[in-house]
């Protein structure tokens, strides 16, 4: 299989977040898409091994922060290569609580959702979320970051838990 063909698909870079009691969690994802307009519903894909997955599954709520091309690149590494179980990923980044969910401030926009369904894939759960709230960040006003931008311009790496991760031995 030529994995380069899959890299031609459009992806964004997002931080999926959730909250259980006082515990804030989040992880970097690139699989998020609006799937219906009425009600407005989005789907996100979270690796079964992510601590954030467990919190979303229990609380039935999540938010996504849409990173911009000017977002601090350290957000991606912090939320993508560490576990919320062991690290407070929010400690070095500004955030706010919206609809009892953490959303980052250094982003293009955010969306909060309640889970209305889920689909199990071999390594990930696809959570369907009915949108509760969504807002564009008037302070950034810049382009959302694409996964292609993340790799080409920022020279970013792919976490083993990412939906698009391909082991080196399977790459061409």
From TrEMBL:
Keywords: Oxidoreductase
Molecular function per GO: FMN binding; riboflavin reductase (NADPH) activity
InterPro entries according to UniProt: Flavin_Rdtase-like_dom, NADH-dep_flavin_reductase, Split_barrel_FMN-bd
Alphabetical list of Pfam families matching this protein: Flavin_Reduct (PF01613)
Domain of life (superkingdom): Bacteria
Transmembrane intervals: none
Residue ranges of domain Flavin reductase like in the record: 6-156
Name used for this protein in its record: Flavin reductase
Organism of provenance: Criibacterium bergeronii
């Amino acid at each position: 299989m030529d994995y380069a063909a899959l890299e031609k698909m459009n992806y964004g870079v997002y931080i999926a977040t959730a909250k259980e009691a006082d515990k804030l969690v989040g992880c970097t994802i690139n699989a998020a898409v609006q799937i219906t307009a009425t009600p407005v519903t989005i789907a996100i894909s979270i690796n079964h091994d992510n601590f954030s997955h467990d919190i979303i599954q229990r609380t039935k709520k999540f938010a996504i922060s849409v990173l911009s091309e000017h977002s601090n690149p350290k957000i991606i590494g912090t939320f993508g290569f560490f576990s919320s179980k062991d690290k407070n990923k929010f400690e070095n980044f500004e955030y706010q609580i919206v609809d009892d969910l953490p959303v980052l401030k250094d982003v293009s926009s955010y969306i909060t959702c309640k889970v209305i369904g889920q689909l199990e894939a071999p390594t990930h759960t696809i959570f369907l979320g009915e949108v509760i709230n969504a807002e564009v960040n008037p302070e950034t006003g810049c382009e959302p970051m694409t996964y292609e931008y993340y790799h080409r311009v920022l020279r970013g790496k792919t976490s083993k838990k990412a939906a698009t991760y391909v082991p080196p031995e399977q790459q061409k």
